[in-house]
Amino acid sequence: MIPQNFRLSARVGWLMGIAAVLVSLSVARLVVTRADDQTTFGWNIAGSAQVLAADNSKIVLTGNGTFVLGDPEEVTTKNGTWQTLDPGGNVTGGGTFQVTSLVKFDLAPGAVGNPAIRAGLAFLKITYSDGSRGILVASCHLTGTPASVAEGISASKGFTNYWNGFSSPQFFTVVNGSGD
After folding, report:
1. CB burial class (10 A; 0-12, 13-18, 19+) of residue 91?
2. CB-based contact 102:122 (threshold 8 Å)
3. Would you call 165 helix, strand, or coil by DSSP?
4. What is the 3-state secondary structure (H, E, C) of 30-74?
5. How confident is the model over 85-139, as pLDDT tens digits?
6. Domain limits of the chain?
7. From residue 12, how far is each of 8, 24, 44, 86 by CA, in Å?
């Protein structure tokens, strides 16, 4: 037979465990950041990003800009430049690029000292100055961001996917709106 005080301790343990899980879930909901549909975010490639394609050809990108969550066509690009190199390092093209629309943006948990800087993942349609099109994927990992979130960029240009590298720090900032 199980002693009475053991059964009481087991029940208290179970109740405390359930309470801890409920509190954890509540806190987790507070930590995950949200933004309203009119929040404007800035994206920024710090310095230049260099990423490789499957054959070790490379694209080098620089730039920054903004996008509005509720309006995928309300985007800007500043200083968007690109250069492609073959596997031997010879320049094969270069020019500017413009973000034409926001495909998708998800905020991720994570923080730094500046509350306007946010972690997340953005997919942006871009047009290169030579007429080709592609997707710029910008990803930001901060302290407290899950390990599944990468840091840096990847990009496509025409049929080539430049994905290997994520070499440049990237971040998002709340430009206006709540961002919460």
Report:
1. exposed
2. yes
3. coil
4. HHCCCCCCCCEEEEEEEEEEEEECCCCCEEEEEEEEEEECCEEEE
5. 999 999 999 999 999 999 999 999 998 999 999 999 999 999 999 999 999 999 9
6. 1-31, 40-176
7. 6, 18, 51, 66
